[in-house]
Automatic annotation (TrEMBL):
InterPro entries the UniProt entry points to: ABC_transptr_periplasmic_BD, Bact_iron-sidero_bind
One annotated Gene Ontology cellular component of this protein: outer membrane-bounded periplasmic space
Annotated PANTHER family: FERRIC ENTEROBACTIN-BINDING PERIPLASMIC PROTEIN FEPB, IRON III DICITRATE-BINDING PERIPLASMIC PROTEIN
Main location: other
UniProt entry keywords in alphabetical sequence: Signal, Transport
GO biological process, one term: iron coordination entity transport
Name of the featured protein: Iron complex transport system substrate-binding protein
Similarity field: Belongs to the bacterial solute-binding protein 8 family.
PROSITE patterns on file: FE_B12_PBP (PS50983), PROKAR_LIPOPROTEIN (PS51257)
Length: 335
């Protein structure tokens, strides 16, 4: 499931973000320990339980947003992924720019999986990957390098607040992690309060390409963030998705079904083509939200990355760019 480079990739990758259910601590961060700063701590995840004997100093992160949490907790990772999609020329996501220091953090090319030798050379105390998608074999390889905290439940489905709690526990900073969650939720709620019109609207979250159409499901963190703004996921999403994609966070549907997306507002990624090209394609031109100008189709890679890699840092960054467009779309939907 490793994908990089195109918005389709991001769609799929963020597709990597979806449905979450886990018996490994769902709703409580999957953390079995108190994470109150006392060590050792043990953290449950999809491959078992990882014990961290003492507060880590050299931290490697994997996945799309773990570095955001680590930075926010006052720790500088010694290694983190580079992001060709959505990152700048240096491969750093824009909301990480103010934290990133090339002298302290090595960027890792993870396009073909975690680069084990480079990670080992960083001599990490812990590897944190609460929002990743590697398999058990890779987890075992990483665990030979350092205690590794994988994702709970399904790959690419860990909600942002759960990621935050997991990392907070691993770093002995649970109280600080909870404050980050509370502050982020408060900021999102403030936007919802400022836009009561959102509560009257349904939405669909899509990835739209010339020959491929995907819908993000209720289990996807992107969808969950929009719901926190007050909108409701349109029933047509579940109808169109059917039951064939249980256990994932998106559903690819036939292109000709696009006009059946009945949401008041459509939020979408342009997949491999521009937003203008999406709206000009005859099949998408029949989508009710596009017809009434209540669609927000994004083809800016940075914004798309921010919408997809949901975290305590990306949420305020991307909502600053998205809410205005969403407000305009809501106005068109209610006209």
């Amino acid at each position: 499931m490793r994908v990089r480079g195109t918005l389709a990739a991001l769609a799929a990758l963020t597709v990597l973000v979806g449905c979450g259910s886990t018996d490994a601590g769902e709703g409580d961060g999957g953390a079995a320990a108190s994470g109150d700063g006392a060590f050792p701590v043990s953290i449950e995840h999809t491959f078992g339980t990882t014990t961290i004997e003492q507060q880590p100093e050299r931290v490697v992160v994997l996945g799309w947003s773990a570095q955001d949490v680590v930075y926010s907790l006052g720790v500088t990772p010694v290694g983190m992924p580079s992001f060709p999609y959505g990152g700048g020329d240096d491969g750093v996501l824009p909301w990480d720019d103010e934290y990133y220091d090339a002298a302290e953090t090595t960027l890792l090319d993870t396009a073909d999986g975690p680069p084990l030798e480079k990670i080992a050379a960083l001599r990490p105390d812990v590897i944190l990957a609460p929002y990743e998608g590697f398999d058990e074999g890779t987890y075992e390889d990483l665990s030979k390098i350092a205690p590794t905290v994988a994702y709970p439940g399904e790959a690419w489905t860990t909600p942002w607040d759960e990621q935050t709690r997991i990392i907070g526990t691993a770093l002995g900073k649970s109280a600080e992690a909870e404050k980050l969650i509370d502050d982020t939720n408060a900021a999102v709620q403030q936007i919802a309060d400022e836009h009561p019109e959102f509560a009257d609207l349904t939405f669909a979250y899509t990835s739209m390409g010339a020959d491929r159409l995907s819908l993000y499901l209720a289990s996807d963190p992107r969808v969950q963030l929009i719901e926190k703004l007050g909108l409701t996921l349109d029933p047509s999403v579940e109808t169109l998705a059917g039951s064939g994609d249980a256990g994932t966070f998106y559903s690819e549907i036939s292109l000709e079904k696009a006009p059946e997306i009945a949401a008041d507002v459509v939020i979408g990624f342009a997949d491999g083509i521009s937003a203008d090209e999406v709206e000009a394609l005859p099949v998408y031109a029949q989508v009710p939200a596009i017809q009434r100008n209540s669609a927000v189709i994004v083809d800016d890679q940075e914004v798309a990355a921010g919408m997809s890699a949901v975290s305590v840092l990306s949420i305020p960054w991307v909502l600053d760019k998205l809410v205005g467009r969403l407000t305009t779309a809501a106005g068109s939907a209610q006209a």
